[in-house]
Specification:
With 335 residues, the chain is of the alpha/beta class. The chain folds into two domains: 122 residues, NAD(P)-binding Rossmann-like Domain (Rossmann fold); 155 residues, 2-Layer Sandwich (Dihydrodipicolinate Reductase, domain 2), CATH 3.30.360. It has an eight-stranded mixed β-sheet with strand order 8-9-10-7-11-12-13-14, with helices on one face. The protein has a six-stranded parallel β-sheet with strand order 3-2-1-4-5-6, sandwiched between helices. It is globular. The two termini are 39 Å apart. The model has no long low-confidence stretch (mean pLDDT 95).
């Protein structure tokens, strides 16, 4: 289904029952043209508890059942990282549109395959990098477009917190696509690309846990313009979770947490600081849904604001960083 009749709503199914799925349901319910009609889990009991708690009419005990549900138009994929490709492709083959949580896939080979499936099925899919659609990021983009800093020389961003240490936790287990890079580092990579565009090269170093996934990594990106970006992601240390953009005329400071900040400060040489604040109702997850609906309304299979090629670029960058760190997943087809 592309487009909808005036006054109709898009019917969403939720694949997964974790915290992000619950937060996403809250965001959907802030929108008049979205309805949450179903949720699924591999456990019937888990699905039913989530549905009861979140007042969702249908609970499915398998992902396949959600794919077969004729009352679902769009699926939000919030399953473990290791399932993102298989689940997204299953829903696409079932004629559902898809919003897939980041990371879009475990590597670039998987990402390209999923994008090809969306193209062949003529169904919309987008990676849920929700930062891109927040009003504060839109405003930051508008400020940057006026080039107040002149030539930008450096971008810095970090995202880190102390994660649970259980070996089976999703952030620690390579079988689940664990590691700080795929979960947190993608926000830093997104920020650098948002400001500077695509990079030319990356050099990474860091620390792995005893299962071989990254718990702390720093990566330096270089650009054709001469600019650099220093990024850090960690599940071992609590970091400021801020970002800065440095140029020849001043600095922009993005507040914590940099992926969903309350505001940013523009400090130009010799001028008073300007503070841009954007109070958000809820977590702001609903803004990406506006884009999903707009694209489907217009018959798009990708967002012009967050394209398939950009998603593939993130996957390729993370492949390169993981290769340098020595992180390898069983599904990798990296030479």
């Amino acid at each position: 289904m592309f487009g909808k009749a005036r006054g109709m709503t898009y019917r969403w199914g939720i694949a997964g029952t974790g915290r992000i799925a619950s937060d996403f349901v809250d965001g959907l319910r802030q929108l008049p043209d979205a309805e949450v009609v179903a949720v699924c889990s591999r456990s019937a009991d888990t699905a039913q508890k989530f549905a009861t708690h979140r007042n969702i009419p249908t609970a499915h005990s398998s992902y396949e059942a959600l794919a077969s549900d004729p009352n679902v138009d769009i699926v939000y994929v919030a399953t473990p990282n290791s399932r993102h490709r298989s689940d997204s492709e299953m829903f696409l083959h079932a004629s559902k549109h898809v919003l897939c949580e980041k990371p879009f896939a475990l590597n670039a080979v998987q990402a390209a395959a999923t994008i090809a499936t969306a193209q062949s099925e003529r169904r919309f899919i987008m990676e849920a990098i929700w930062s891109r659609f927040l009003p504060v990021y839109v405003a930051l983009g508008e400020v940057l477009a006026t080039q107040p800093l002149g030539r930008i020389s450096h971008v810095a961003a970090d995202f880190g917190f102390v994660a649970p240490t259980q070996r089976a936790h999703r952030l620690n287990d390579p079988a689940l696509g664990g590691g700080a890079l795929l979960d947190l580092g993608i926000y830093c990579l997104h920020f650098a690309r948002f400001v500077l565009g695509g990079h030319d090269s990356v050099v990474a170093h860091g620390e792995l846990n005893d299962q071989g996934v990254d718990v702390d990594a720093t990566y330096t990106l270089t650009y054709r313009s001469g600019a650099t970006a220093t990024l850090r992601s960690t599940t071992k240390h609590a970091t400021p979770c801020t970002a800065t953009i440095t140029g020849e005329r001043g600095v922009i400071h993005v507040e914590s947490r940099m992926h969903n900040p309350p505001g940013f400060r523009v400090q130009l040489h010799g001028e008073a600081e300007r503070y841009h604040r954007y109070d958000e109702v809820g977590q702001g997850l609903r803004h990406q849904v506006h884009e999903v609906h707009r694209c489907i309304d217009n018959g798009f299979i990708e967002s012009p604001r967050l394209t398939h090629s950009e998603t593939l670029a993130y996957a390729q960058s993370m492949d390169d960083i993981r290769r340098q760190l020595g992180v390898r997943y069983a599904v990798d087809e990296i030479a």
